[in-house]
Amino acid sequence: MPRLLRFRLRHVLDVAFLGSYLIAALFPIYWIFVSSFKTPLDTLAIPPVWLFRPTLGAYQNIFVLDDYAWYFLNTVVIAIGTTVIALAFGSLAAYALDRYPFRFRNVIAYALLGTRFLFPIIYAIPLFQLFNRVGLLDTRTGLIIAYTTFSLPYAVWIMQGFFAGIPTDLDDAARIDGCSRLGAFWRVILPISAPGLGAAAIFIMLLAWNEFLFALILAGGGMARTLPVAASLLVGQRQIEWNELCALATATIVPLLVFFGFLQKHLIRGMVAGAVKG
User: Fold this and answer.
1) Among residues 73, 104, 117, which one has the least CA distance to residue 230?
2) pLDDT at 268
3) What is the pLDDT of residue 145?
4) What is the pLDDT of residue 4?
5) pTM (2 d.p.)
6) Using H for helix, E for strand and C for coil, what is the string for 88-144?
7) All domains of the chain, ordered by start, with CATH?
8) Which residues pair with 240 in a beta bridge?
9) What is the pLDDT of residue 148?
10) What is the pLDDT of residue 122?
11) In sequence order, which residues have a C-beta less than 8 Å from that of residue 216 and are 6 or more positions away?
12) How far is the first Cα of the chain from the last one, in angstroms, to the nearest whole number?
């Protein structure tokens, strides 16, 4: 077989495989989106209904008649608050671990990462008892604090890998120009680290946005309930409101897609830069 024909055949097979994989990966999301505009009868129809009259009844039921708009606001506030705080403290910790040669800094870095090796349920009972004593149960503040403790290792490790790729000469030049150590970090190093911040922000946002276990345990009462917990309320013992569940899933997915679209270039650059230490 000629080399050119073999190359074209391989190219066609690669495109066919990737296309099939893309269809298989995106079809569930497409079906969720389409089902959110169906009536309850259409979502349960067998065989599936492909042509139907779209309706916004599911969105009206969950966001107007019920309290899911409040749960959506809770999720946005908690996810953004967690991301901002985790990036602020994680960046400072990562900068200290990379730039200051003190004893046991590698031990501290691996200890931070080691906290993610434990089963999350191990933290549930201590956090519940602690938050119950200080009045943080069923509050946005409590969930932000809990999520920040889980997100810090990711922020520290991503940013530390990125800081390691930035020459220390930039810190020295900023110090010569009159900046303090913190000023050099804020005015010089942090702006250069924007791709790393974007990568860490995506990981932390995904963690805080989709977290279910601690949101159920620490804020299952209703005041600070988030969308993942609220979605479980649509699953009853005898009936599942599939169209409303799909509408809520769509409202959960779309903000993440928009957020990821804005930061995807930073995610790729941050992952590459954080994977190489100089």
Assistant:
1) 73
2) 60
3) 93
4) 63
5) 0.82
6) HHHHHHHHHHHHCCCCCHHHHHHHHHHHHHCCCHHHHHHHHHHHHHHCCCCCHHHHH
7) 67-275 (1.10.3720.10)
8) 235
9) 93
10) 84
11) 229, 232
12) 46
C-alpha distances (whole Å) from 259 to each of 76, 105, 107 are 12, 34, 34
Handedness of CA 236, 242, 244, 245 (dihedral sign): positive
Relative orientation angle of helices 194-210 and 68-99, to the nearest 10 degrees: 140
Spell out a b/e string for 109-138, using b for 16 or more CB atoms within 10 Å of the CB, else e.
Answer: beebeeeeeeeeeebbeebbeebeeeebbb
Contact 79/209 with Cβ under 8 angstroms? yes
The two tokens of residue 191 are 């702006």
pLDDT score recorded for residue 266: 59
Give tens-digit pLDDT for 178-233.
888 888 888 888 888 888 888 888 889 989 999 998 999 998 777 888 988 888 88
Name the DSSP class of 48: P
> Position 30: which residue type?
Y
pLDDT the model gives residue 109: 81
CA–CA distance, 31 with 34 (Å, rounded to integer): 5
Distance CA 202, CA 267 (A): 7
Structure-token pair, residue 183: 């000023």
Which ranges constitute the DSSP H helices of the chain? Answer: 3-35, 40-43, 57-60, 68-99, 105-114, 121-134, 140-164, 168-176, 181-184, 190-192, 194-210, 213-219, 227-232, 242-275
Query: What single-letter amino acid sits at 164?
Result: A
Which residues of the chain register pLDDT less than 70? 1-7, 237-238, 265-278
Distance CA 180, CA 176 (A): 9
